[in-house]
Specification:
Distance between the termini: 97 Å
Number of helices: 2
Largest sheet: none
Helix content: over 70%
Shape: flat
Strand content: under 5%
Structural class: mainly alpha
């Protein structure tokens, strides 16, 4: 397909406009990412610098201990259920293996 000189004169300014708009959008995304990273870092620094009252600090410790206890209890219950299921399945297998049929003619 051939390009006529008239068409070529129209195409050059449009390509410049498109390249400017695409670079502007790329730059906009980059600046937004930098702003979000800076705000996240500021929030993290503020929480590190913040001083909590003694009562609040103890509450945090207690809840952490409670969470640890709950998770250990859940793990223990799961292990017990697995043991019960495995012992039940073993008993079923043994009952199937030991059953015999005596046929007399």
């Amino acid at each position: 397909m051939s390009i006529k000189p008239v068409d070529f004169q129209v195409m050059i300014p449009r390509t410049m406009e498109i390249s400017k708009s695409s670079s502007n959008e790329t730059q906009k995304n980059y600046t937004m990412q930098q702003q979000q990273a800076a705000s996240t870092q500021n929030n993290a620094e503020n929480t590190l610098r913040q001083v909590y009252s003694q009562k609040h600090a103890q509450d945090v410790r207690i809840t952490q201990r409670q969470k640890d206890k709950e998770s250990s209890e859940k793990d223990r219950k799961k292990k017990e259920e697995e043991k019960n299921e495995s012992s039940e399945s073993k008993a079923q297998i043994k009952s199937m293996q030991t059953s015999t049929i005596d046929i007399k003619v």
